[in-house]
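[09:14] KT: can someone run the structure on this one? pasting the chain below
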Amino acid sequence: MHESAEPKTELKIKQKKPGRHTLLMPLNENSQNAIRRYLTDTNMDDLIFSGQLSHLTRKPISVKQYGRIVKGWMKKLGVEDLDQYASHSIRKIKPTIIYNQTRNIDAVRRLLGQSSVTATSAYISVTDNSALELARTINV
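[09:31] RB: done, structure tokens below
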């Protein structure tokens, strides 16, 4: 990495689904530092997660292997029910935290690039019980 180069403060994520647009996702300081270390310590042609035969094939790991890595992370964190975690569940973490802290479902919908609040509610597991619990905390 060139010494004056700095990682971006946000990612541009192009949605694969038809009609979807490019989303901006902010990178926190820890992510920026990890990228900075990666760019400093590695060859730019290296893969972040490479398959077992990457030195021969130069292919990234499979989605299945990435899922195993995620489950390994959760196990190290002491999570007992690993079935709730998969590679796609990593995408749900930040939007769920944002919703739980702000209760702004429309902002979360926009961050995820979804067209309906209904889809967003299902995506971040807004249940009838969680809605009822929220209602109990507000006195009118």
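[09:33] KT: thanks! The longest helix spans residues 63-76.
[09:34] RB: yep, looked fine to me
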